[in-house]
Amino acid sequence: MLTPLLFAIETPDQVRESLNRLEAGLGKGQAVPIPAQLRRNLSLTENSADPVLECDEILTSLHIYTRTIRNPFSDPLTTKRGLSIVGRYAFGSPDVPLNTQRIAARCLNNIIVLAQPMRQVFVDEGYPQKVIARLKNGDPEDELACGNLLLFSSVQTTLDLNPFFESGDLAEPINDNLLRHSKSDVPLSNDPAQPAVASLKLMSTLAVSYEAQAHRFIPSFQPVFDLLDKVRIPSPPMQLPVSLLVGCLASVPFHDKSRKGVTFLKSNVDKLIDVVDASLKSYAGKAGEMNLLTPMVALLRVSQAADLESETIKQLKERLLPSEEDRKEVLGKGKTLPHRLLHFGVNSTSPELRDPTLSLLFELSNKDSREFIRNVGFGNAVGYLTTKGINVSQEDMAASGADANNSRPINPITGQRMDMEQDVDLPEMTEEEKEREAERLFVLFERLRATGVVNVENPAARAASMPSVEEVNSSDDEKK
User: Where is this region: Disordered (predicted)?
Assistant: First the structure.
């Protein structure tokens, strides 16, 4: 634990003097005593005589100073020299006490966060390899600092982490750290400075940036589910820690079909569905609608990973597909989760959101267009099927007109049970209105047939092609 600060660094001149003092202490096994003039400049008391404690004090003060730097691109701390001095205390010398190394690592993290050019300097100086080596020790303090250092140095730099993935030095310690956190009885909080948060951020970022290496994080999918299972869903739901945990599930390819026998705990799947449910209530049709993307993708990946006959698929179908009770209304118009999920998938203005939502329902329909139409109604299904280039025949539409469970007739367009449809009292159409409606339907059928997606026969064209029958009255027969 750090002692109370004996001084504060507030100006660039004090930073320069502090760096000079730190540089003088490098390689001596311990920090050198602070010269009297520097002691006066830093307002140090004469009682702070321990050189190691004084070094820790300076590094701690520099760490605090990084939070208030007004011009990070011209400050002496955010230069190659400043980074190098602090970096050598953090990772460059085994003679530096461990506590001092950790203080320096936190200060180093703030430097590369403040001044983006310093990230490339950090890479050029060879620090990422040293960070990865320390990440292996499994200490939460090192996990937090090292995770953040790797996270920021991997963005907009020339750093190539592929060799570290291939050697097993990178993914394995991250997986080990997350497994350790998942065994804790204490749920994650919304504090961004938790070691587990650093590992989760690092994993999700690397899984996206290094897609070919993302499979190396598959061992963490169950620990991430376990961590999610322990936390309370906040309102709105997509904030720490839920947003980060769900983001990891959406990033890691645990749905890879080359993996056999993927199983999910019922409580894990229920929790993820609850997150989707809460997200639909909070974001659907609103400004924050894109918050729904990661939970939808995560749930889609669960449906893709589970075997068709598994309990997980049965669980998903039970909670997400319309029930007989849901079919008392036009599908997508009610207030239950299946209604709201379908309404969102059809009506979202963003194709990035529509596709995973409807793909989820298509997966739960065994990827069968006929079953998909039966589950959601032709009116809700046709747009998705068209974009995927899936043909729909008249037989598919006809087969969708009966509930697969009890054979009750349903409206194939809306998915509603026909016995629950309300009679619409409309005035009788005039002959002119009938002709206009017939012409409109003729054009619509011709356009639909021309797309090649839906194979239907225009009833008007069919009637026109049939041989006509002329009625002859009985009086004419008698004359003949």
Answer: 458-480
2 pLDDT band (50/70/90 cuts)? very low
Query: What's the whole-number mean pLDDT along residues 376-382?
Result: 92
Q: At what angle do helices 378-387 and 337-347 cross, to 10 degrees?
A: 50
The confidence score (pLDDT) of residue 77 equals 92
* pLDDT at residue 28, as a whole number: 57
* Number of residues that make up the chain: 480
What is the pLDDT, as a whole number, of residue 463? Answer: 63
pLDDT band at 423 (very low <50, low <70, confident <90, very high): low
CA dihedral 381, 384, 390, 395 (to 10 degrees): 10
Give the residues across from 417 on adjacent strands.
Answer: 410
Nearest to 66 by CA among 18, 117, 15: 15
Residue type at 1 in one-letter notation: M
Question: Predicted confidence band at 1 (pLDDT cuts at 50, 70, 90)?
Answer: very low
The 10 Å Cβ neighbour count of residue 213 is 17
Mean pLDDT for all residues in the chain: 86
Q: Is the pLDDT of residue 266 over 60?
A: yes
Query: What does pTM read for this prediction?
Result: 0.83
Domains of the chain: which residue ranges? 1-159, 185-302, 321-421, 436-466
Residues 62, 15: contact at Cβ < 8 Å?
Answer: yes
CA dist 414 and 91 (Å) reads: 65
